């Protein structure tokens, strides 16, 4: 009956039926518990079913279920907008509500496109993207994503972009030492902008970590150089913080690590911590002011039925409050130490089977050596790896040969140990293809 996402329709393993959850644990219909090592697609930053989030949802539904946001407003939407802008230290001016990360990214692209047209600049038609990026599965989000199994069949539907190599400091694509380089991976982009910047709308990037594209890490200096380039050439810096936002990299937002401010950011996932679908796009003053007009054609004509719906706003407000009151960034530091320790032991035990082990905040990654077999999202051992982990009470979902751990920030040491125990068992059964 269900067409499950990212799942082959023939030969796939039957889906595991989950019936309840609490903290870092999911429970199947037999009562067996599983440690959620990926925060259920990176959303459950406070653990599952946090009582304050559940109560916020119940309270709001009792008060107001829904009202459209076109021509109307309501207290949770007003309060959340204020709290989000304050949470980002008032670096942004406006909050645009939507319902998931892909649509938040689409909104960012549309605002960027219209921003220049509202200024009378119709020549700009190019978005800069990076080769291993992933921003979602809607048409615009796929257009600014790298070539992959996610979008390859849809190429003729996508709008034109200019592609550059994804920065990856753990495995530099241009062969430099990241400790001594001058962000040489951006040299080609800089040369392109020097000749064609008047055709470019903006640069779209996942800051610090390219997530679904392979958990590729880059250093903060890459962000700083990109901000310098976009400001020098008068184009927009558009950051997708759907994955990295709300503490995942160790700061509230990844861009803070580089001490920069982008022109817009897209946020979702940790915003409501898995309770409800919800997303926002935050817009700086310099961009928003180009929409301040009584001319109808300078209006942003974009909305969704559930734009800024009351229960989503209420849960997001509760999540922001929990994030601050329960000191989630301290939790991330604790998790980071646990991930470093766990991956260090695994790397020492299986040096011939792993490469490019790396940790940042509540993200820990190791790549399987693939020998003669091509790495990537559909790497053959990923399915077996996932199955072995499930047998041992752990939910992990490798990106092909890339094993990643992105647990709830509240995870216990015992549960982290269980995760690495399952990884150890899976690696013991793994043979590098010859």
Automatic annotation (TrEMBL):
Modification N6-(pyridoxal phosphate)lysine, positions: 269
Main localisation: cytoplasm
Gene Ontology CC entries for this record: cytoplasm
EC annotation from Swiss-Prot or TrEMBL: 2.6.1.62
Location within or outside the cell: Cytoplasm
Cofactor: pyridoxal 5'-phosphate
Gene Ontology biological process terms in this record: biotin biosynthetic process
Site (Participates in the substrate recognition with KAPA and in a stacking interaction with the adenine ring of SAM): 6
Chain segments annotated as transmembrane: none
PROSITE patterns, per the entry: AA_TRANSFER_CLASS_3
Listed Pfam families: Aminotran_3 (PF00202)
Keyword Transcription regulation: no
Keyword Cell division: no
MF term (GO), any: pyridoxal phosphate binding
Alphabetic keyword roster: Aminotransferase, Biotin biosynthesis, Cytoplasm, Pyridoxal phosphate, S-adenosyl-L-methionine, Transferase
Oligomer status and interactors: Homodimer.
Family statement: Belongs to the class-III pyridoxal-phosphate-dependent aminotransferase family. BioA subfamily.
Function: Catalyzes the transfer of the alpha-amino group from S-adenosyl-L-methionine (SAM) to 7-keto-8-aminopelargonic acid (KAPA) to form 7,8-diaminopelargonic acid (DAPA). It is the only aminotransferase known to utilize SAM as an amino donor.
Protein name: Adenosylmethionine-8-amino-7-oxononanoate aminotransferase
Species in which this protein is naturally found: Leptospira fluminis
Lineage summary: Bacteria, Pseudomonadati, Spirochaetota, Spirochaetia, Leptospirales
Name of the gene: bioA
């Amino acid at each position: 009956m269900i067409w499950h996402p990212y799942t082959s329709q023939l030969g796939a393993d039957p889906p595991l039926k989950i019936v309840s959850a609490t903290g870092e644990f999911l429970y199947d219909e037999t009562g067996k518990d599983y440690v959620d090592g990926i925060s259920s697609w990176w959303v459950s930053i406070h653990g599952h079913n946090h009582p304050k989030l559940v109560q916020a949802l119940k309270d709001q539904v009792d008060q107001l279920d829904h009202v459209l946001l076109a021509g109307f407003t309501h207290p949770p939407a007003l309060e959340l907008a204020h709290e989000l802008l304050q949470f980002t230290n008032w670096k942004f001016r406006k909050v645009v509500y939507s319902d998931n990360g892909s649509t938040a990214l689409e909104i960012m692209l549309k605002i960027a496109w219209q921003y220049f047209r509202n200024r009378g600049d119709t020549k700009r038609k190019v978005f800069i993207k990076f080769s291993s990026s992933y921003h979602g599965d809607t048409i615009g989000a796929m257009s600014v994503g790298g070539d992959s199994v996610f979008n390859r069949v849809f190429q003729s539907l996508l709008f034109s972009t200019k592609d550059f190599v994804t920065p990856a400091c753990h495995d530099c694509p241009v062969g430099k030492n990241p400790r001594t380089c001058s962000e040489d991976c951006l040299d080609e982009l800089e040369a392109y902008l020097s000749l064609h910047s008047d055709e470019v709308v903006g640069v779209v990037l996942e800051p610090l970590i390219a997530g679904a594209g392979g958990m590729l890490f880059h250093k903060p200096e890459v962000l700083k150089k990109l901000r310098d380039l976009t400001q020098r050439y008068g184009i927009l810096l558009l950051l997708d913080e759907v994955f990295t936002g709300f503490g995942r990299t160790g700061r509230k937002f990844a861009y803070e690590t580089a001490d920069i401010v982008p022109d817009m950011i897209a946020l979702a996932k940790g915003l409501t911590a898995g309770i409800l679908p919800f997303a926002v796009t935050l817009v700086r003053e310099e961009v928003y002011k180009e929409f301040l007009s009584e001319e109808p054609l300078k209006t942003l004509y974009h909305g969704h039925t559930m734009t800024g719906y009351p229960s989503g706003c209420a849960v997001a407000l509760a999540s922001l409050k929990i994030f601050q009151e329960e000191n989630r960034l301290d939790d991330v530091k604790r998790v980071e130490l646990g991930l470093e320790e766990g991956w260090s032991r695994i790397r020492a035990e299986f040096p011939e089977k792993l490469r490019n082990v790396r940790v940042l905040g509540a993200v820990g990654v190791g790549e399987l050596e693939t020998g003669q077999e091509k790495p990537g999202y559909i790497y053959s051992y990923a399915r077996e790896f996932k199955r072995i982990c499930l047998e041992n009470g752990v939910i992990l979902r490798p990106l092909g040969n890339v094993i990643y751990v992105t647990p709830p920030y509240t995870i216990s040491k015992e549960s982290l140990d269980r995760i690495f125990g399952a990884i150890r068992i899976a690696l013991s059964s793994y043979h590098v293809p010859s």
